[in-house]
Amino acid sequence: MQKFAGGDKSWVGKFTYSGCACLTCKGSAGLATERPGYQLVGMNLTLQLREGLPEDMQTLLRDYPREAWPENPHFARSVQNWMGAHQMFRRLAGITRADTEAYLDNTASSGAFASRMSYYGDLLVRNLHGHHSWEDHAFFPEMRRADGRFEQGLETLEADHVQLDETLDRFTRAANRAIKLIQLDEKQVRGEVGELHGCAQDIEGFLARHLPDEEELVVPIILHHKLRG
Ligand SMILES: [Fe+2]
Ligand SMILES: [Fe+2]
User: Fold this and answer.
1) 176 alpha carbon to ligand 1 midpoint, in Å?
2) Which domains does the chain have, with CATH numbers?
3) Mean of the per-residue pLDDT values for the chain?
4) pLDDT tens track for 45-91
5) Do residues 3 and 108 touch, judged by C-beta distance below 8 A?
6) Is the pLDDT at 8 greater than 90, yes or no?
7) Given pLDDT bands bounded at 50, 70 and 90, which one contains residue 27?
8) Span 155-208, pLDDT tens digits
9) How far does residue 62's CA lie from ligand 1's centre (Å)?
10) How many angstroms separate the alpha carbon of residue 43 from the centre of ligand 1?
């Protein structure tokens, strides 16, 4: 387990959500409750239960398989950047999960834990909320206009966002409680960090299902309809 340095108190009060900072979303912000479509998704398509997109949502993926994307002339830089944002989310989710483990294993001090959680936790939550909002309000509508055959898949992805946002909210509350308790009563912190660790694992698991499904629905639509030149 990695041993963390640091431990100053500059992290106090920094864990707040104020809109996305990633290049793809260009600073957009939004709330989970504004999202459309999630009630229309059948239970067997929820994040925890499905093992990929349904067969009929993979019509274009069969013509545009993932391994052929890099050599497709319409696999534009902006699409690669959007997938790069997904990589960043995977990394940030892994960092926050590993940081909670380091604290629970006594290989990181409470100050180092709080400092890193304030920074990386904030980055994860802020960027994911903004990214989801931009996809729901701009990106997915563009995909709908381009090709009407994938409505069920897009609604499933929107429902994922609602579910992910609920977990991000649990994560934020647990992180803020843990950081606050470090200042007030450090003996109680371990329980909160245990809760936080569960949330971080949930986020990692959700992303491992949501991100590949999203890419494999959306990228073939973009390539087939030459939406990015
Ligand atoms: Fe995404
Ligand atoms: Fe998404």
Assistant:
1) 26
2) 42-224 (1.20.120)
3) 84
4) 677 668 888 889 999 999 999 999 999 999 999 999 999 999 999 99
5) yes
6) no
7) very low
8) 999 999 999 999 999 999 999 999 999 988 888 899 899 999 999 999 999 999
9) 21
10) 21
Q: What is the secondary structure of 197-224 as a DSSP string?
A: HHHHHHHHHHHHHHHHHHHHHHHHHHHH
* Distance from C-alpha of 6 to C-alpha of 28, rounded to nearest angstrom: 32
Give yes or no for residue 217 having a pLDDT over 60.
Answer: yes
Distance 106 CA to ligand 1 centre (A): 34
Distance, CA 140 to ligand 2 centroid (Å)? 9
pTM exceeds 0.70 for this model: yes
Per-residue pLDDT band at 44 (split at 50, 70, 90): low
Ligand 1 centroid from CA 5, angstroms: 32
Residue whose structure tokens are 């959007």:
82
What is the CA(193)–ligand 1 centre distance, in A?
Answer: 27
SS (HEC) of 13-43: CCCCCCCCCCCCCCCCCCCHHHCCCHHHCCH
**What is the rounded CA–CA span in Å between residue 209 and residue 215?**
11
Nearest ligand to residue 136 Cα: 2
State in Å: Cα 213 to ligand 1 middle: 10
Amino acid 86: pLDDT: 97
Ligand nearest to the CA of 83: 1
